[in-house]
């Protein structure tokens, strides 16, 4: 059980890491620099995050938390499931692309990290909620769960293409709309 001061310290560390990543990618997230910026000893930083990738995964988690809060405050309003799912993905895209260096760091961490992350699961849950209602009301065997996971994976690959300069947000949205319309059908 962590105390309030421990939560605040952890939050400062993650915010410092995110700020550094937004200016220079993962390379800018040097552990010593993060500890200095967060105002904690290097040993303290390593107690919270044993490796740089653990820290990157924490930043990814914070970004997802922000997206989840945004979706909760302003749920998608489209009339059909595919359009609601695409709305969620495009909000995530716009949010990430406001800080392209951070977006690249987050995507790279998903590809390169051997640290376990729940990114795919959380994105799938967001898509399920937007497209079909509360995920807890959808059984584990329901094919919509697999479809949401697949759509989340497709979006991740589209983000990679955008970060490489091979796609625009409009192109991504168009491809996601076509894919969601074909995949998200009533069970």
Automatic annotation (TrEMBL):
Pfam families named among the record's database cross-references: TetR_C_20, TetR_N
Alphabetic keyword roster: DNA-binding
DNA-binding region, residue range(s): 30-49
Domain HTH tetR-type, first and last residues per copy: 7-67
InterPro entries linked: Homeodomain-like_sf (IPR009057), HTH-type_TetR-like_transc_reg (IPR050109), HTH_TetR (IPR001647), KstR_C (IPR041642)
Protein's name according to its UniProt entry: TetR family transcriptional regulator
């Amino acid at each position: 059980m962590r105390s309030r001061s421990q939560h605040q310290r952890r939050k400062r560390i993650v915010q410092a890491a995110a700020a550094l990543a937004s200016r220079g990618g993962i390379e800018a997230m040097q552990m010593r620099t993060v500890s200095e910026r967060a105002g904690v000893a290097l040993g303290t930083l390593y107690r919270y995050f044993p490796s740089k990738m653990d820290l990157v995964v924490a930043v990814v988690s914070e970004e997802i938390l922000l997206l989840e809060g945004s979706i909760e405050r302003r749920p998608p309003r489209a009339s059909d499931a595919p359009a609601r799912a695409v709305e969620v993905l495009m909000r995530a895209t716009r949010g990430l692309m406001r800080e392209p260096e951070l977006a690249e760091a987050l995507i790279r961490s998903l590809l390169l990290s051997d640290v376990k992350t729940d990114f795919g699961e959380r994105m799938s849950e967001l898509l399920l909620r937007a497209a079909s209602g509360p995920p807890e009301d959808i059984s584990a065997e329901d094919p919509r769960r697999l479809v949401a996971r697949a759509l989340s994976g497709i979006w991740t690959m589209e983000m990679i293409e955008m970060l490489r300069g091979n796609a625009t947000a409009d192109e991504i949205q168009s491809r996601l709309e076509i894919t969601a319309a074909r995949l998200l059908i009533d069970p």
